[in-house]
Amino acid sequence: MGRIPEMIIFGLFQPIMFVVLFTYVFGGSIQVGSSLSTQAYREFLMAGIFAQTVTFATAGAGAGIADDMHKGLIDRFRSLPMTRGAVLTGRTVADLVQTALTLVVLAGVSLLIGWRTHENLGKVLAGFGLLLLLGYAFSWIGALIGLSVRTPEAATSGGLIWLFPLTFISNAFVDANQMPDFLRHIAEWNPFSATVQACRELFGNLPPGFETPDAWPMQHPVWASLIWSVLIIAVFRTLAVRKYRRAE
After folding, report:
1. Residue 125 CA: distances (Å) to CA of 60, 101, 117, 179, 194
2. Do 54 and 99 touch, CB atoms closer than 8 A?
3. Mind giving me the DSSP string for the chain?
4. Buried-state track 12-26, b at ≥16 Cβ within 10 A, e below 16
5. What is the pLDDT, as a whole number, of residue 138?
6. What's the predicted TM-score (pTM) here?
7. How many CA atoms, within 13 angstroms, populate the side-chain half-sphere of residue 78?
8. Are 40 and 9 in contact (CB under 8 A)?
9. What is the rounded CA–CA span in Å between residue 110 and residue 46?
10. Distance between CA atoms of 11 and 104, rounded to whole angstroms?
11. Exposed/middle/buried for 208, CB within 10 Å: 0-12, 13-18, 19+?
12. Mean pLDDT in each 10-residue stretch from start to end of the chain (248 residues)?
């Protein structure tokens, strides 16, 4: 990151662009709860933008590992006397640091355009903690993708193609109650949605008249977010380390 600072700079452009576009293009035209207020939608939106930002870092994680594989760096690490999971853990933690920096800048931009929290500092920090945990969990999915493909370009494509339906069939940008029934059930049990809902509660950003869905993850979003993230880490870290041992 120190040698290639443009990685961080370019990584900031997309989430800032989403904030500006969704706030000023869709704000006031999408109803959330009982309100069409631009401010209500802005506060409803930001948890979704934060969650999308941390999950889209998956593509970068996968591309970075695929690039290391392509250049032979991973082969050199595997020849050294170290724990097999150490290299991947180091990579995912480094990605987590970059994601945290991105969130700090994005939160600052959000405050400038009028986003506000309405809970105490402890709850707000807990919300950002859940976001970082989700980002760390998804970075292990990126690690597995990066170890499974032959080029960084394939890792980038493979890391993004499934993220778009995951983030858009969710409660990130619209009220899931307005979706057709079959999509609404998917959105309510989407691990991404659980973190978004948890952050809205912890930030105090639920709009007036918002009806919380009856699905268990939406009724208990903080616990659902923790369970989903820990489960993803447990499964995909195991698969990634196993793939790392066998990668050629």
Report:
1. 25, 14, 11, 31, 17
2. yes
3. --S-THHHHHHHHHHHHHHHHIIIIITTTS-BTTB--HHHHHHHHHHHHHHHHHHHHHHHHHHHHHHHHHHTHHHHHHTSSS-HHHHHHHHHHHHHHHHHHHHHHHHHHHHHTT----S-HHHHHHHHHHHHHHHHHHHHHHHHHHHHSSSHHHHHHHHHTTHHHHHHSSSSSS-GGGS-HHHHHHHHT-HHHHHHHHHHHHHT-PPTT----SSHHHHSHHHHHHHHHHHHHHHHHHHHHHHHHH--
4. eeebbebbeebbeee
5. 94
6. 0.88
7. 14
8. no
9. 8
10. 13
11. exposed
12. 70 76 72 70 88 86 80 78 84 89 88 89 96 95 87 79 90 88 93 96 87 91 97 95 79
Q: Rounded to whole angstroms, how far apart are CA atoms 155 and 240?
A: 14
Residue with tokens 């401010």: 39
Neighbours of 173 (CB within 10 A): 19
Q: Which tokens hold the place of 56? A: 């889209």
Query: Under a CB-based contact definition with an 8 Å cutoff, are residues 196 and 53 in contact?
Result: no
Residue with tokens 């949605």: 193
